[in-house]
Amino acid sequence: MASEISKTQIDRLGDRLRESDITEADLRLLDEYRRSFSEAYEFVVSGIRDELGLEPTGRPAKSTTSISEKLLRESIRLTQMQDIAGCRLVVSEIANQERVVTSLTKLFPQAPVVDRRARPSHGYRAVHVIVILGNKPVEIQVRTALQHVWAELSEKLADVVDPAIKYGGGSEATAKVLLEASTTIAQHETQEIALAKLESQVSAMLLEERLEKEKEEGLISLRLEIKATQESQISIRENTVMSLRRIIEQIPLIGGEQ
Which domain holds residue 197? Predict the structure, then answer.
């Protein structure tokens, strides 16, 4: 049974994976270990669906190669890996991301939060909420539409061009393109947050009593300008997502020409 696997067994398995010295028995043990996360994963997904009314998508099971590579990249044990099991929530924009993360931390109050927006990992930006149940961590990735399409672009380039691209490797030109795209997305989302805060402040001021007519008219005009700018930002965001998706669709063709 999966519950009978000891921490020592798993970490020794991780050592063998790191050294690429694995047997068929090791692969069976790793599969058993991955399946031992099923109960925790289902609990997390059910909680998100039932309590928050959101529909998470399951991430593909972490492959043996991905696990081995991560163990090589990072100084961690196999039992310390937090993304053996996980799910993903993709929201429209960054204000919704903030709300969803807040809701998740209320639903799972002991869950650590890893914010990769201020400190991106090779351009990757998202918020990860790590729910730990019975020593089984389940990673919830919360991404905006822009963060998600950037991650898809990085994944596709890694698949077609060079797997090292996701971790800062590969060609300098490709890494530069991804980092510039990530920076542009971050700037756009920062502007969205600033506009939302400004709109909230103006709306609060309009609710105040005894406003002078001239001041009230000025605030109404300002709020209309803010709304128009927000609509423009939404259009830019949607067009950017579509443009990046078209690029992603073309990558296999580009790869085939090399």
Answer: 167-257
pLDDT in tens, the chain (258 residues): 344 689 999 999 999 999 888 899 999 999 999 999 999 999 999 999 999 999 999 876 788 888 998 998 888 999 999 999 999 999 999 999 999 999 999 999 999 999 999 889 999 999 999 999 988 999 999 999 999 999 999 999 988 888 888 888 888 888 898 999 999 999 999 999 999 999 999 988 888 767 788 888 889 899 899 999 999 999 999 999 999 999 898 887 544 333
Tokens representing residue 184 in the block: 């542009």
Q: Say yes or no: 194 and 253 in one domain.
A: yes
d(CA 126, CA 145): 10
Nearest to 237 by CA among 141, 122, 93: 93
